[in-house]
Amino acid sequence: MTARVELCGVALGGPVLNGSGTFDAIAARRAFGDALLERFPFDAFVSKTITVEPRQGNPPPRLWETPAGLINSIGLPNKGLEGFLASDLPELAELPVPLVVSVMGFSRDELAALVARVGERDEVAMIELNVSCPNVETGLVMGADPAETARALERVRPLTEKPLIVKLTPNAEEPPAVAAAAESAGADAVSLINTLKGMALDPETRRPWLGAVTGGVSGPAVRAVALEQVHSVSARVTIPTIGMGGIASGGQAADFLAAGATCIAVGTESFRDPAVGRRIASELVELRQTRQPAFAQSEAGGTPSGGQGSALLP
Ligand SMILES: Cc1cc2nc3c(=O)[nH]c(=O)nc-3n(C[C@H](O)[C@H](O)[C@H](O)COP(=O)(O)O)c2cc1C
Q1: From CA 32, how far away is CA 43, in angstroms rounded?
Q2: Which residue has a Cα nearest atom 5 of ligand 1?
Q3: Strand 99-103 to strand 5-7: parallel, antiparallel, or no bridges (unpaired)?
Q4: Using CB atoms within 10 A as the burial measure, which of 34, 177, 207, 252 is most buried?
Q5: Closest C-alpha among 199, 181, 96, 85 to residue 131
Q6: Phi, psi dihedral angles at 270 (to 5 degrees)
Q7: In the Cβ-directed half-sphere of 231, how many Cα atoms lie within 13 Å?
Q8: Backbone phi, then psi, for 83, in 5-degree steps?
Q9: What is the pLDDT, as a whole number, of residue 303?
Q10: Nearest ligand 1 atom, CA 218
Q11: Ligand 1 pocket check for 20: Cβ under 6 Å
């Protein structure tokens, strides 16, 4: 039995997505062939973030394993907008689930170019705006500031009718205020959390381990922070919330759904087990059969986010 979900008007077979940048579906297809398509681990696929220009990413090393997760400083290596449209998009379009393309612009003009070009492609079901980057015009991280986020949304909203998901950064002073600004300016959903800023030192030299000095923390270490932010954001907006941050089991996914998320996403855990999305989906179905009470509705002061806790359909 599956648990169908509707996200921004798009029907999904269930509520389990991948976190952008944490599952390379093109490489997985090469490794596993059509078996990947027959048992695809997610109910929608989110591409890694693309930028207008091609990027090499940050200098190595780019990963550090913490006792309960990862610090990454991958730095968004990608083929750029035209390279993505020409070579990655046709391959991603063969996946058996709706496709979400994640985009990041270093200015509102760049973001507009990305949304306009990606938005005209029929293969794309939704667009995720990764706003965890500095705007070169202001020096501010777009998603750290409600007004900057709203300005970005106002610029791109008229360019496409496709649902726009804003991927919030946990490094903002007040993520619910950013989410509310995104909603007022026309966002159709928010996803959170992106990684928390962190660093690690080389135990031999006591110098920064990562080539980029700092990176983003993910995995079980961030789960409690993510759960709180999903709860407080979901209580503030009426659009759907996609919750992520350290989810590795159906029970943990159920926590995020109970806290107000419509869907959840799995990131770091997919590096350990690329099929984990399917396991989480089936554990969620088993949990639903035990009819656990919804925390969000019973203890959080009413149903947050327009009753998304009830978006799971039989
Ligand atoms: C190696 C790695 C690469 C990532 N790349 C991206 C990316 O390209 N775009 C993005 O929005 N988030 C990116 N993220 C963040 C994840 O999508 C997710 O928001 C975060 O890792 C929290 O979920 P998790 O704890 O389940 O990994 C990346 C995370 C990791 C670990």
Answers
A1: 18
A2: 21
A3: unpaired
A4: 252
A5: 181
A6: -65, -20
A7: 18
A8: -65, -40
A9: 40
A10: 25
A11: yes
Give the tens place of pLDDT for each residue, 48-74: 999 999 999 999 999 999 999 999 999
- For the chain, percent of residues with pLDDT exceeding 90: 87
Our answer on whether the CB atom of 229 is closer than 6 Å to any ligand 1 atom is: no
**Residue 243, ligand 1, Cβ within 6 A:** no
DSSP state letter for 30: H
Cα dihedral 212, 213, 217, 219 sign: positive
Q: Which residue among the candidates 99, 133, 164, 312 is catalytic per the annotation?
A: 133
Q: Confirm or reject: Cβ of 195 under 6 Å from ligand 1.
A: yes
Which residue has a Cα nearest atom 4 of ligand 1?
A: 21
What predicted TM-score, i.e. pTM, was given to this entire model? 0.93
Give yes or no: 263 in active site: no
Q: What is the mean pLDDT of the chain?
A: 92
Alpha helices per DSSP H over the chain: 25-32, 35-38, 80-83, 89-92, 108-119, 146-156, 175-184, 223-236, 250-258, 269-272, 276-289, 295-298
pLDDT digits (tens, 9 = 90+) for 283-306: 999 998 886 656 654 454 434 443
Pocket test for ligand 1, best of 16, 18, 20 (most atoms within 8 A of CB): 20
The reported pLDDT for the residue numbered 115 is 98
CA of 84 to the centre of ligand 1 (A): 19
- Gap between the terminal Cα atoms of the chain: 9
Q: How far is the CA of 43 from the centre of ligand 1 (A)?
A: 17
pLDDT for the residue 206: 98
> pLDDT tens digits, residue range 175-204?
999 999 999 999 999 999 999 999 999 999
Q: Which residue is closest in CA terms to ligand 1's atom 15?
A: 194
CB within 8 A of 120, min separation 6: which ones?
A: 160
Q: State residue 138's pLDDT score.
A: 76
